[in-house]
Design brief:
Helices cover 31% and strands 24% of the residues. The chain is of the alpha/beta class and 259 residues long. The protein has a domain of 159 residues: GTP cyclohydrolase II (Rossmann fold, 3-Layer(aba) Sandwich), CATH 3.40.50.10990. It binds zinc ion (2 copies).
């Protein structure tokens, strides 16, 4: 059972009855409107479901509407994930510059690709692609922060100079997406135990942490190992410290086996 954080949102989602297939979710959710999750009372509903063959494996893509900011969050579902227990799950925060454009200012694309490959090699798996670009400050502001970093500020200083906290992400929407998919419990693919604590606050039952370890290939081995060997979340561009946009420190296979 997915337990609901009653302190912040009493019984928000009692109406999410189980359905047989993902394709049945838009019909189930068409009139869904609940008290919402977390302090922002986030409510999402499934709007559309389609097949999504990718270069990383076969998935179904589930599009969610939400009542807060109109952003289209999506879930990539591999195998039979509806109502699953101990479902291997990855939360990925959108990064247009990394995910789509191949930016080397961050490691988001490496983390996304490895997650999708791993999940599609398993019997079942789930990736929630959360539209919280740039640690939650949005694309335009992320680029403004990059510009400040180019002038010597680090990520935290740059975000604060723009009037944001250093991390504006939250996982209320992820908690509701899991409830919408009737997921009973997850094994979270992450190197960051704090992410598990955040999800638990919203009532998500996390039964295990799966380390998110990136295997280097012959082209990026040196690059990834260098990143992994730097401390914590910190990376560097031209000697200036920046922070990972995903909240996971990089862990690389060879660095793990070497220690
Ligand atoms: Zn709802
Ligand atoms: Zn990124």
């Amino acid at each position: 059972m997915l337990r609901i954080a009653r302190m912040t949102s009493p019984s928000p989602c009692t109406g999410l009855q189980r359905v047989a297939r993902l394709e049945d979710l838009p019909e189930r959710d068409k009139d869904h409107d609940c008290g919402g999750f977390g302090p922002h009372r986030i409510c999402v509903k499934v709007d559309a479901v389609a097949e999504l063959p990718t270069r990383f494996g076969r998935f179904q893509i589930v599009a969610f509407w939400n009542n807060r900011d109109g952003k289209d969050h999506v879930a990539l579902v591999h195998g039979d994930a509806m109502g699953a227990s101990d479902l291997p799950t990855r939360l990925h925060s959108e990064c247009l510059t990394g995910d789509a454009l191949g930016s080397l200012r961050c490691d988001c694309r490496d983390q996304l690709e490895v997650a999708l490959r791993r999940l599609s090699s398993m019997r079942r798996g789930l990736l929630l692609y959360l539209r919280q670009e740039g640690r939650g400050i949005g694309l335009r502001n992320k680029i403004r922060a990059y510009a400040l970093q180019d002038r010597g500020l680090d990520t935290v200083e740059a975000n604060r100079a723009l009037g944001f906290r250093d991390d504006e992400r939250d996982y209320e929407v992820a908690a509701h997406m899991l409830a919408s998919l009737n997921v009973a419990s997850i094994q979270l693919m992450t190197n960051n135990p704090d992410k598990i604590a955040q999800l638990k606050r919203y009532g998500v039952n996390v039964t295990k942490r799966i380390p998110h370890v990136i295997p280097p290939n012959e082209f990026d081995r040196r690059y990834l190992l260098t990143k992994a060997l730097r401390s914590g979340h910190q990376l560097e561009i031209d000697g200036k410290p920046i922070f990972s946009e995903q909240d996971d420190p990089v862990v690389v296979e060879e660095a793990v086996t070497a220690t």
